[in-house]
Amino acid sequence: MNILFGIGLLLLVGYSLGFLAEKAGLPKIVGYIATGIFFSPHTFGFLKESMLSQTEPLIDVSLAFIAFEVGGSLKWEKLKNYGTVLLRILLLESLLPFFFVLVALIILGFFFPGLFSISSHWILILALLLAPLASPTDPSATIAVMHQYKARGQVSDTIMGTAALDDAVGVLLYSVSVTVAAILAGSHGANVGQSLLNSAYTIFGAVAVGCFLGWMTGVISRFFKIEKEGQCIVILVAFIALSFGISTLLNFDELLAAMALGVFITNFNKQSNQFFKIVERYTEDLIFLFFFILSGLHLDVTAIPGAAFLIAVFVVFRVSGKYLGSRVGAAWGGATKKVRKYTAGGLIPQGGIVIGLALLISKNPYFSDISDTLLAVVMGSAVFHEVIGPIAAVRALKKAGETNSETPEEIAAG
């Protein structure tokens, strides 16, 4: 199928299903993801496998814009009010899913090895590789829901701050776990210290790139006296693309760089309100439409039956860890009852970064014996997290009374 014809068809069908989902009281992105899954080469084969690689630049552009918007939501004036609460929630909602999934898989593998489709030698290694993938949250799904329902308030700010930062924790856990797993798999060259240094390089390098380009945005804006909306769009597209591109060249975390760019601009650029209003007004719907349709295209629902048991274990213990971690962390930080009760609902979505990390693992020759199993678990759980996650986020935000698309009576009734 011609690539432009395929994209046009996907956008039209995706927009239509998003509209129907909204009318049914669901987040629009559920319709977008359903469109991608329906047209996926893994499902009914309407689109060819070759088209997936052709859409990767569009996914990168969409991710860069979404990460920039997530960064823009992290305004210091808001975050300083939740500092201790945010850090304690972040710590526990990142670590508990990791430990829950790790321990659950090890115990089940020890007592019921027949439930795993791999030899007992690989069960511990698989547990070590899957556990860090339970920590990250997909902020793109959450921010899409928040914009659709115009969510504002303590719970919304806490969810966004936590979801934006737990990717960094996930990357650190991933680095250590993969190194230990490689040693167990027979790699004598694996080094935990070197792995941590590589993670620090990836994270701090990305932050440095984002902050430098954020500063440059202000310099360029003043030099050229940028005021018109068209000029602002050019500047934004240029610097968002640069943040992603430079990070790719230097092996930094691309999403963290785009996020750092957004954080710097929203906190230090006098034109920040103008910039983010333009992004929201002109690019948001198209970006979300593109990203979630294309994400759906990459999800392999056919992987679910063969790895159903492991997918169920991963999902149940990840969600349990997120729920317990956010509640205990919020209570530990002295958060309000509303934050303690409803933050977890916005931390379920998971996709982009986890799929990317899983693909990296699958390319490692030391894990070739379990790479298919690992990818099946990640892809299968991603279908659940990306469809159920936004619905859970909407429910939590409505219960917290932070959505503006309903009456107070509806909130009370919920």
UniProtKB/TrEMBL annotation:
Presence of keyword RNA-binding: no
Membrane topology reported for the UniProt record: Multi-pass membrane protein
Gene3D superfamilies, alphabetized: 1.20.1530.20
GO function terms (MF aspect): antiporter activity
Record keywords, A-Z: Membrane, Transmembrane, Transmembrane helix
Membrane spanning residue stretches: 29-47, 85-116, 122-147, 168-187, 199-220, 232-252, 286-317, 342-361, 373-394
Subcellular location: Membrane
Predominant localisation class: membrane
Highest taxon in the source lineage: Bacteria
One GO process term, biological-process aspect: proton transmembrane transport
Domain (Cation/H+ exchanger transmembrane) ranges: 11-384
GO cellular component: membrane
Protein name per the record: Transporter, CPA2 family
Organism: Mariniphaga anaerophila
